[in-house]
UniProtKB/TrEMBL annotation:
Residues 4-183 form the Ketoreductase domain. The keyword Oxidoreductase applies. Belongs to the short-chain dehydrogenases/reductases (SDR) family. Keywords: Oxidoreductase. InterPro entries: Acetoacetyl-CoA_reductase, KR_dom, NAD(P)-bd_dom_sf, Sc_DH/Rdtase_CS, SDR, SDR_fam. GO terms for cellular component: cytoplasm. SMART domains: PKS_KR (SM00822). This is Beta-ketoacyl-ACP reductase. Signal peptide: none annotated. One of its GO terms (molecular function) is acetoacetyl-CoA reductase activity. It comes from the Bacteria. The lineage of its organism: Bacteria, Pseudomonadati, Pseudomonadota, Gammaproteobacteria, Oceanospirillales. GO terms for biological process: monocarboxylic acid metabolic process; poly-hydroxybutyrate biosynthetic process.
Length: 245
């Protein structure tokens, strides 16, 4: 049987790299979608040195046309995408009083429009295959809200509604749609927070540490599995007990 294709947006980032590696270990042909092609090429070479052979594709996830073109390129060279991981994301933090419309819009476009864009281009081929896994990487802050992040919290919360609606639409078509909501994971996104604030955050995590990217990747692997067909419209919170609901 030929290998399934998995496409990971933001695949070259902290959590994205762990997801790509895990899915590759699971036997998928893995494509990392990235907006920065120069960075992607360097990443691909570095991963090769670690024994991983990834394909890369240039996609700006906030731009529908770019998603269409990127998907076409992947489908023509490798085949239809069976597993889509909507992982690309950005932060543009600021209290509402000072947040510009641009800060709002950029985060909504990259973190939420992206989920529509990529799911839309992957859906038809998944329907034809009668199989698909769409895994949306949300955030603890989309569940509980976070001051200074009205944009990010709104975008990540929006993913949950999207997931549950699409999961209902595709439930009988072999396609599952789920979210993962990571808590604080030790990637650049978190490590660039000032140390005193970081330490304060850590004190609020019951398990007493930040999560590891591999812990998110493991859950992606679980949801992507052929045997995961009964899990749909779900949200798996992976946050060290910081937010329980
Ligand atoms: P990184 O900043 O390491 O990775 C983000 C990735 O998204 C990068 O590869 C980046 O690509 C890509 N990206 C950004 N904008 C675009 C775009 N327009 N088109 C395509 N790709 C884009 O972050 P993390 O690995 O930490 O985060 C991954 C996901 O997990 C995000 O959605 C984040 O919100 C979520 N998350 C992270 C948490 C954490 O603690 N780290 C906690 C909760 C959720 P490039 O480098 O090429 O710009």
């Amino acid at each position: 049987m030929s290998k399934k294709i998995a496409l990971v947006t933001g695949g070259t980032g902290g959590i994205g790299t762990a997801i790509c590696r895990r899915l590759s270990d699971d036997g998928y042909v893995v494509v990392a979608a990235s907006v920065n092609q120069e960075k992607a090429e360097a990443w691909k070479e570095a991963e090769k040195a670690s024994g991983y052979d990834f394909a890369t594709v240039h996609i700006d996830v906030g731009d529908f046309e770019s998603c269409q073109q990127g998907y076409k390129q992947v489908a023509e060279t490798l085949g239809p995408v069976a597993v889509l991981v909507n992982n690309a994301g950005i932060t543009r933090d600021g209290f509402m009083k000072k947040m510009s419309w641009e800060q709002w819009h950029e985060v909504l476009q990259t973190n939420l429009d992206s989920v529509f864009n990529m799911s839309k281009v992957c859906l038809e081929p998944m329907l034809e295959m009668k199989f698909g896994r769409i895994i949306n990487i949300s955030s603890i802050n989309g569940q509980k809200g976070q001051m200074g992040q009205t944009n990010y919290s709104a975008a990540k919360a929006g993913m949950h509604g999207f997931t549950k609606a699409l999961a209902q639409e595709t439930a009988r078509k072999g396609i599952t749609v789920n979210t993962i909501s990571p808590g604080y994971i030790a990637t650049d996104m978190i490590m660039k927070i000032d140390e005193p604030i970081r330490n304060q955050i850590m004190e609020g995590i019951p398990v007493g540490r930040f999560g590891k990217p591999e812990e998110i990747a493991r859950t992606v692997s679980f949801l992507a599995d052929d045997e995961g067909g009964f899990i749909t419209g779900a949200n798996l919170a992976i946050n060290g007990g910081q937010h329980m609901c």
